[in-house]
Amino acid sequence: MYNDNPTIPTLGKEIDESKQGQVFFDGQKSEAKKHFYIESYGCSMNFSDSEIVASILGEAGYGPTRDMDIADLILINTCSIREKAEYNVRRRLGVFNRIKRERPGIMIGVLGCMAERLKSKLMEEEKLVDLVVGPDAYRDLPNLLAGAEDGDKGINVLLSREETYADISPMRLQSNGITAFISIMRGCDNMCSFCVVPFTRGRERSRNSFSILAEANELVERGFKEVTLLGQNVDSYKWENPETKEVVNFAQLLEMVALVHPDLRVRFSTSHPKDITDEVLYTIAKYENICNYIHLPVQSGNSRVLKLMNRTYDIEWYKERVDSIYRIIPDCAISADIITGFCSETEEEHQDTLDIIEYSKYTMSYMFFYSERPGTMAARKYEDDIPLEVKKRRLSEVIEVQSKISAESNALDVGKTFKVLIEGNSKKSDLHFKGRNSQNKVIIFPKVDGYKPGDYIQIKVDKVTSATLLGNAVV
Ligand code: 5AD
Ligand code: SF4
Q: Under 8 Å CB-to-CB from 278, ≥6 apart: which residues?
């Protein structure tokens, strides 16, 4: 679980803090001879990748288990985005190694961004793991496992320009049977100066549209009601059909997925302010089942800082995009990622970040203080000169303004009726259901006879807290 900041980076789709690191196998009981246990950290893309890994391991005869004490293979899918994320992974590796001391036959593997960033270091210098597999090398896992059993070094951190795992049907590990992720692209070409992702996940590539539609269709057949299309920068999705040479852009893909079934909700994340087009906005407005929610990371409210961050838009551009969203989709919710205390940020520039929260009226944000990452452009070119206490104080100011804006946004919902997709029991009470509206706000309401998780229900909001809406069914 990340503790460096009060919120978690999730490519916009909330991975509940309580789920960080956890494993869920939805009633899947494995008959396999060997078992793997996998923990996932970080963004939705990592959680989605773990489902691809599970599928590849399934083919190789490994079944999933929630119990690391019976696992033959313990995997940890890691995140490098901030220093603290890596620190937590090392702590977990310590726990796994204690288990290995008791059961020396088991294997420990590190997957994902930390594997890619540190390469052989965790295996050779620190002797913490037997396997190191980067985000583009998961197909090689069975081979690497077999080799490692024979004493070979189990490492593959090659990045690919083509790999999208398009043909792999993910094993839905942490599924509630209602909502699922579909990865539509991999990598990132943006090179934001603070970000390690382009180094750990490689070049941007888009997945075959037909395989995305096939996955959405299969999910509908299995009773799923919501998909989230995932990518580091979904608005630059672009897939060329090798036969017809026709190109599918993100707006067209969104429309195609929306047409899979009218009862299938479509969400997507993350949008980059430089790439989100009016065509995408009109597509969202046109289809009732494309959710009115856009995660649009601003990072900073000041144009000089945005330039240093290499975000390639200025704050006027960003405001114009926000204005267009509210013009074309009036009831759209917008959320953001925000970084405080980036290199050389002044108090006035920080004030601009507080102002953009008020301007954009984000329903929520993921907020972080800047953490220098080795190898990034910022680490090479700029001094990390804002003292930690200042970064943290600015972060708490950002959180305070965001909480006020979230509460104001929630207060405006009192008296409104929303179509809610029921996701399950509320955390606090078995007598209540929890669901979300199109704007991605959580709504808690008393259970109603005849309604179950996976159903849609009309809920009238009568009370709000700063984070949740409370209501009653209108049936
Ligand atoms: N320090 C702090 N936050 C970061 N993010 C990415 N890199 C860093 C960093 N070095 C944040 C950005 C991004 C989100 C996923 O994580 O806000 O949008
Ligand atoms: Fe990192 Fe920027 Fe790419 Fe997002 S768009 S993954 S912040 S480089």
A: 324, 328
Taking the centre of ligand 1 as the mean of its atom positions, its distance from the CA of residue 313, in whole angstroms, is 17
pLDDT digits (tens, 9 = 90+) for 421-468: 999 999 999 999 999 999 999 999 999 999 999 999 999 999 998 789
Beta bridge partner(s), residue 106: none
Q: Is 199 in the pocket of ligand 1 (CB under 6 A)?
A: no
How many degrees, rounded to 5, is the angle at CA 416 between CA 412 and CA 418? 120
Instruction: Quote the CA–CA distance of 52 and 203 in Å, as a whole number.
Output: 19
CATH class of 17-156: alpha beta
CB 153 within 8 A of CB 123: yes
Q: Which fold has domain 417-473?
A: OB fold (Dihydrolipoamide Acetyltransferase, E2P) (2.40.50)
Nearest ligand 2 atom to the CA of 191 is: 8
> What pLDDT sits at residue 239?
97
Q: How far is the first Cα of the chain from the last one, in angstroms, to the nearest whole number?
A: 39
Q: Which CATH architecture has domain 179-411?
A: Alpha-Beta Horseshoe (3.80)
% of the chain at pLDDT higher than 70: 93
Reply yes or no on whether the pLDDT at 90 is more than 90: yes
Evaluate if residue 2 carries a pLDDT over 70. Answer: no
Ligand 2 pocket test, candidate residues 10, 79, 195, 296, most atoms within 8 A of CB: 195
